[in-house]
């Protein structure tokens, strides 16, 4: 467990130092976020407690897809685009957020400037922000959107990486074909 924390921490510090030197945030080899107005297609995905209504989504490379995410469950859920390895890494990050008390069953704990400052100065605080462009959190009863341009043929997954949810079935195949 200590080793795991150290690995997560060094990954965060690495991201932080790279972020200061180069462009903001990270890039993705399968595409990038886009404005909803650029979408060529809309796909609705309904989330329940531990399921997505869609088991598989097929996309053509070059398409810009606006995902409309409807959470009909009682719990907070995530819609995240990535491959299995990316989801596994993100599940570790979300576990840290859950252990720190930031990730609650029905939402993210709102943090005022005071608690933000405390977190920034503690060694565990680095990277504790849920702001990945390939992911959106949807509170129970709410609808959220994510628009993404898929640039190449690849096999991805859409998943909820809140601890335990992926394993309980919140994952589907997202196939981008040429
Ligand atoms: Cu979930």
Top keywords for this entry?
alpha+beta; 5-stranded mixed sheet; binds copper (II) ion; about 180 residues; Immunoglobulin-like
Describe this entry's structure for a reader.
The chain is an alpha+beta fold and 178 residues long. It has a single domain (33-177), classed as Immunoglobulin-like (Sandwich). Helices cover 25% and strands 34% of the residues. It has helices spanning 2-21, 84-99, 113-121, and strands at 31-33, 41-48, 51-52, 56-60, 64-71, 77-82, 103-104, 107-108, 135-138, 143-150, 154-159, 171-177. It has a five-stranded mixed sheet with strand order 1-10-5-2-3, with no helix packed on it. The protein has a five-stranded mixed sheet with strand order 4-12-11-6-9, with helices on one face. Strands 7-8 form a two-stranded antiparallel sheet. Strand 2 (41-48) and strand 3 form a beta hairpin. The chain starts with a helix and ends with a strand. The model is unreliable at 10-23 and 120-126 (pLDDT under 50). It binds copper (II) ion. The site of copper (II) ion has 6 residues, from strand 6.
CATH class: Mainly Beta
Number of strands: 12
Distance between the termini: 42 Å
What is the CATH topology descriptor? Immunoglobulin-like
Structural class: alpha+beta
Can you summarize the main beta sheet?
A: 5 strands, mixed
Helices and strands, with pairings:
Blueprint: H1 2-21, E1 31-33, E2 41-48, E3 51-52, E4 56-60, E5 64-71, E6 77-82, H2 84-99, E7 103-104, E8 107-108, H3 113-121, E9 135-138, E10 143-150, E11 154-159, E12 171-177
Parallel strand pairs: 2-5, 4-12
Antiparallel strand pairs: 1-10, 2-3, 5-10, 6-9, 6-11, 7-8, 11-12
The structure holds copper (II) ion.
Copper (II) ion (CU) is lined by residues 77-78, 160, 162, 165, 170.
């Amino acid at each position: 467990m200590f080793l795991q924390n150290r690995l997560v921490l060094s990954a965060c510090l690495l991201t932080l130092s790279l972020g200061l030197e180069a462009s903001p945030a990270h890039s993705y080899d399968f595409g990038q976020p886009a404005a909803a107005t650029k979408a060529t297609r809309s796909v609705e995905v309904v989330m329940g407690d531990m399921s997505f209504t869609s088991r598989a989504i097929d996309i053509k490379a070059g398409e810009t897809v606006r995902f409309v995410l409807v959470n009909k469950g009682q719990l907070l859920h995530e819609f995240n685009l990535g491959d299995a390895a990316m989801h596994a890494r993100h599940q570790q990050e979300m576990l840290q957020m859950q252990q720190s008390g930031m990730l609650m069953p029905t939402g993210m704990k709102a943090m005022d400037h005071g608690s933000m400052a405390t977190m920034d100065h503690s060694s565990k605080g680095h990277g504790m922000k849920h702001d990945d462009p390939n992911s959106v959190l949807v509170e129970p009863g709410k609808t959220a959107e994510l628009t993404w341009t898929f640039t190449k043929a690849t096999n991805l997954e859409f998943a909820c990486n809140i601890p335990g949810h992926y394993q309980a079935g919140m994952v589907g195949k997202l196939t981008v074909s040429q």
